[in-house]
Amino acid sequence: MVQTDSLHLVTRAIAISVTIPKSTATLALTEPMIRNLPEGQPYVTKTGQASAVAVRQGDTLLFTASCDSLHQLIWGYEQELTRVRNQQSRYEKQSESLVSPFTRLGYGYTVFVTLLLIILLIRRK
Fold first, then answer.
1. Which residues partner with 81 through β-bridges?
2. Distance between CA atoms of 13 and 37, rounded to whole angstroms?
3. Starting from the edge strand earliest in sequence, which strands make up the sheet with 50-57, in order?
4. Residue pLDDT, tens place only, 78-97
């Protein structure tokens, strides 16, 4: 019996770009909060990648809002190792006989005598 092994290696690298869902930052200010806000001192709120800022400059209230646009790159790495075992059986033809040479000689002799008797019976008729 002959055995052979074969290894097969498959490697895959995958990059997927995923957009992060938007987020919203809400800044709610009441009138007393706005009046009591010291000049240059901000009110800030942040949710996820979104932020909102309110700053009083003199008699003006400045609102600034920003949201980072994010993309996430997801890397996938996959490796598959396959082992294949191949088993092959080799059978050698052997001329082993289940019947001994003497038995074959006996069969041959029996067939010869039988044929001889048949021929003699046919000639007599």
1. 9
2. 54
3. 42-47, 50-57, 60-67
4. 888 777 766 555 554 444 55
Closest to 118 in 3D by CA, of 110, 50, 38: 110
Q: In the prediction, which pLDDT does 92 show?
A: 47
* Measured distance CA(30)–CA(41) in Å, rounded: 16
Residue 65 token pair: 């809002």
Beta bridge partners of 84: 6
Tokens of 20: 């992060």
> Is the model's pTM score more than 0.90?
no
Give the CA angle between residues 37, 41, 47 to the nearest 5°.
100
**Looking at residue 26, what DSSP letter applies?**
-
Which letter does DSSP use for residue 58 in this model? T
